[in-house]
Amino acid sequence: MLTKRQKQALDFIKSYTQKKGFAPSLEEIGRHLGLSAVSTAHHHVRALEDLGYLRKEDNQPRAIDVYQKEQMVRIPLSGTIAAGNPIEAIEEKESITVPRSILSRGGDFFALKVTGDSMVEENIDDGDVVILRRQNFAETGQKVVALIDNSEATLKKFSKGRNNVTLIPGNSKYEPITLEPDRLNIQGIVIDVIKTETRIETLPKITFTQELEVQSRPLPIDQVVCGDAIENLKKTPSKSVDLIIADPPYNLSKGNKLQWSAVSGYKGFGGKWNKVMEAWDNQSLSELFEFSFAWLSECKRILKETGSIWVFGTYHNIGVINTIFQLLEIEIINEVIWYKRNAFPNLSGRRLTASHENLLWGHVGKKRSYYFDYKTAKAFFSPNDLLKPEGKQMRTVWDIPNNKESNETKFGKHPTQKPLSVCKRIISVASKEGDIILAPFTGAGSECVAAKMLNRHYIGIELEKEYVDIAKKRLENCKVQTSF
Ligand SMILES: C[S@@+](CC[C@H](N)C(=O)[O-])C[C@H]1O[C@@H](n2cnc3c(N)ncnc32)[C@H](O)[C@@H]1O
Q1: pTM confidence score
Q2: DSSP characters for 324-393?
Q3: In the predicted model, what is the mean pLDDT of residues 316-326?
Q4: What is the Å distance from ligand 1's center to 248 Cα?
């Protein structure tokens, strides 16, 4: 299912292309959607591409092809086939959805998942799925799945000789297999390949912004800036911020591995209900790593020695964040588990109900001079937190129902908005009145609103204008409190 913004982008691209005969530029898509950053239009186009609605040539302006939504058909995914040494044929009964147009009229089709590397030079890699037409003959040059001696199955290129047949691997590491024709039983010929997602092979190149390179500008105190977090963090002076509360994309919307399956629906983390389904929340592992490294290294640079950083996450991204903390030598002070007593039940019934989020708290100073209000933390009491007795030390499990009061959503909703109660607790234990609090992924502004209510200064950065507008309205309408 498309989000509202994705649908608007797709409709615009289609009608523009129909009228003008060429596709709109990213700037035009952005203008049509009322976006201030071209990168957001790019995010939407990339999401539509991942979902199989269109294809965009990299680095080519206006090179967008819109696919007409194809009729999809199911064919059996009959098992695994070795693209290495022949293995015993494995029979499994599953099915896979493919566009009807790749199947010629008539015929019996099936799919097999490939293991091994003997066809890599033919662009068939380990993990890919091959689509086959069932037939017991082949022409020289066709790729076939064949049984040798009626027991071992293999995927190879076929070549017919005068008295024998040869199975040729698509990898010079392996030798061709030549046989008498009656030892070979062809099962089908390959008509198409579904590629799996590119895997991470090397860690991305990492670059640090050097102190001298920073083109600082005055801090946008008590403002929410619409734009990219990394770009804006790079302009922020070093050692200028007391507390950072980052609620970055969690990567919950990560799509399926098989590109075509994504067209017909989302499987994976507990079904589509659990997904945010936003373009900004869909990154490959290497993109997630590179992105997280970039914004965290800037955060490290701009934090004061007495400051600290909190990052929200779940198991989808928190391992990456934890690793990067360690690589950047951001010392972990605590990991807090935000326990959500009222978590939404798991609809698929195939896993435990996810009922917590993780918060990593770290600091960058050499002397552990980060600010911690021990007394406030100890004195904290809320009748809603059944795990924090009054007057006892605050522990690392916070029992905070994931409820938002009506005034938290009255100016509009955000799919992953945090309750003010969580943000206020962080701010109260890790900052003082008058401190500067930065939220690089502001969303609907909860961290900034909590900061303002607790008499701190805030700086927000958010990519999407519609969320910036919600945050600004919330900030205009909130009042300073005396306690949290
Ligand atoms: C998890 S949400 C934050 C929700 C926020 N804590 C709240 O309570 O409303 C992450 C936000 O980061 C924004 N975002 C994603 N990529 C970004 C980027 N590169 N720069 C700035 N904001 C970004 C998304 O638009 C989204 O609103």
Answers
A1: 0.60
A2: HHHHTT-EEEEEEEEE-TTPPPPSSSSSPPP-EEEEEEEE--TT------HHHHHH---TT-TT--TTSP
A3: 94
A4: 6
Q: Model confidence at 281, in pLDDT bands (50, 70, 90)?
A: low
Residue type, 308: S
The count of other CB atoms within 10 Å of the CB of residue 213 is 8
pLDDT of 199 higher than 80: no
Structural domain boundaries of the chain? 4-66, 72-194, 211-476
Among the atoms of ligand 1, which is closest to the Cα of residue 418?
A: 8
- CA–CA distance, 339 with 326 (Å, rounded to integer): 25
Cα separation, 185 vs 157, in Å, equals 14
467 CA closest ligand 1 atom index: 27
H or E element that contains 467:
helix 465-476
| SS3 label, residue 237 | coil
33-71: b (≥16 Cβ within 10 Å) or e? bebebeebbbbbbebbbbbbbbebeeeeeeebebeeeee
87-88 and 94-99: which strand pairing? Answer: unpaired
Residues 6 or more apart in contact with residue 230 via CB below 8 angstroms: 291, 294, 295, 298
Does the beta carbon of 463 lie inside 6 Å of ligand 1? yes
Nearest-angstrom CA–CA distance, 176 and 119: 12
At a CB cut-off of 8 Å and minimum separation 6, what does 11 contact? none
Nearest to 307 by CA among 131, 431, 216, 219: 431
For domain 211-476, is the CATH number 3.30.450.20? Answer: no
User: For strand 177-179 and strand 72-82, is the pairing parallel, antiparallel, or unpaired?
Assistant: unpaired
* Distance from the alpha carbon of residue 423 to the mean position of ligand 1, in angstroms: 15
Give strand pairing partners of 55: 65
Nearest 5°: phi and psi at 233?
Answer: -65, -35
- CATH fold of 4-66 reads Arc Repressor Mutant, subunit A (1.10.10)
Q: How far apart are CA 430 and CA 373, in angstroms?
A: 6
Which residues are identified as catalytic? 118, 156
- Distances in whole angstroms, Cα of residue 261 to Cα of each of 48, 88, 190: 14, 27, 19
pLDDT tens, 324-351? 999 999 999 999 999 999 887 777 678 8
Residue 153 structure tokens: 């199955």
- Considering only the top CATH level, what class is 72-194? mainly beta
Triad 213, 217, 219: Cα angle to 5°: 125
Q: How much distance in Å is there from the Cα of 440 to the middle of ligand 1?
A: 8
Q: Tell me: the pLDDT tens digits for 151-169?
A: 788 899 999 999 999 999 9
pLDDT of 18 strictly over 80: no
Whether 234 and 298 have beta carbons less than 8 Å apart is answered as yes
